[in-house]
Amino acid sequence: RLEADLRAAAVRLYGDAARQGWQRAFECAASVRSGQRQFARIVGALTAGRGVASLLSGAWLIGAARELGAAAFGRLSVILAVGGLLDIVSDMGIPLNLTHLAATGGPSRSVVRKALGIRVLLDVPAVAALLLVCRFATGGWAAAPLIFGVSIVASSVYSTYTAVLRGQGALRIEAANDALSRLAVVVIGLSWLSLGGGLVAAVGTYALADLASAVVVPTIAQRRIRWVETGACPPERLSVRSTLPLASASAVNIIYYRLD
User: Over the stretch 145-191, which tens digit does the pLDDT of each residue have?
Assistant: First the structure.
C-alpha cells in the first residue's frame, strides 16, 4: 500500500511539473511572439518614416534644381556634400554610444547634457571648416554656408535625443520627425524658391526644419526617455576610449554613404 501511495504521489508531482512546464513554454512562446510583433512594428515605423523622407527629399531636390538653376544648385550640392562629411566631426561616435547606453540600462540626464554639450562644441570647427571650403569653392564668403551651419547645430541637438530613444526602442518619434521635417522642407522650400529666394532660401529651409526638430524632439523625448539616476550611469562612458572605436565606425559609414 505504501508503494502504491508513493507511486500515486509521484504521478501527481510529475503531472503538476509537466503542466507547469507546458504553461511556462506557452508563456515564453507568447512573449517571443509579442516581442517579434513589437520589433516588426518598430522597424516598420522607422522604415516607413525614412522611406517617406527619402521620397520627399528626392522631390525637393528635383524642384530645387529647376528653381535654382545649374550654378546655384551646384553651390547647394557642395554645401550639402561638405556638411554631410563634416558630420564626422560632430558625431565622434557619441550617438552610437548613447544608443548602446540606453539599451543596456538607460542614461542619466547629466550624461545626455554632457553629450549634447560636446557635440555642439564640436560643431564650431565643423561650421568653420564648411565656411572655408565653401569660400574656396564659390569664390567668396556667402551667407548660405553660415545659415546651413545653424542646421548642423540643430541636427546635433535633436539627433542626440533620438539616439537615446533608439536605444530604448522608441523609434516612432524619429520616424515621424524624419518624414515631417522633409515634408516641411518640400512645402516651405519650394514656396520660398518660387518667390525668388534663391540659394539662401534653399539652405534656410533646412535650417528652419532642423530648428523646429531641435525644439519639438527634445521636448517629447524628455517625457518618453526612461531616465536613471546619475550615479547609476557613470560619465566615463563618454570618454575618448569608449567613443573612439564608435567614432571610427561612424566615420567610415558617413564617408561610404557620401561617396556612394
Answer: 888 889 999 999 999 998 888 888 888 888 888 888 888 998 998 89
Query: Which pLDDT belongs to residue 72?
Result: 86
Question: Is the whole-model pTM more than 0.85?
Answer: no
- CB 221 within 8 Å of CB 161: yes
Q: What cell was used for 42?
A: 518598430
List the one residue out of 53, 49, 42, 38 whose CA is nearest residue 175.
Answer: 49
- DSSP symbols for the chain: -HHHHHHHHHHHHHHHHHHHHHHHHHHHHHHHHHHHHHHHHHHHHHHHHHHHHHHHHHHHHHHHHHHH-HHHHHHHHHHHHHHHHTHHHHHTTHHHHHHHHHHTT---HHHHHHHHHHHHHHHHHHHHHHHHHHHHHHTS--HHHHHHHHHHHHHHHHHHHHHHHHHTT--HHHHHHHHHHHHHHHHHHHHHHHTT-HHHHHHHHHHHHHHHHHHHHHHHHHHHS----GGGS-GGGGSHHHHHHHHHHHHHHHHHHHH-
**In one letter, which amino acid is 45?**
A
Of 237, 233, 180, 231, nearest to 209 (Cα)? 180
Looking at this protein, which amino acid is placed at residue 13? L
Q: Which of 158, 160, 177 is nearest to 45 (CA)?
A: 177
Indicate the range of 24-33, 66-75, 102-111 predicted with least confidence.
Answer: 24-33
Residue 214 pLDDT level (bands cut at 50, 70, 90): very high
Tell the residue number behind the cell numbers 517629447, with chain if given: 220
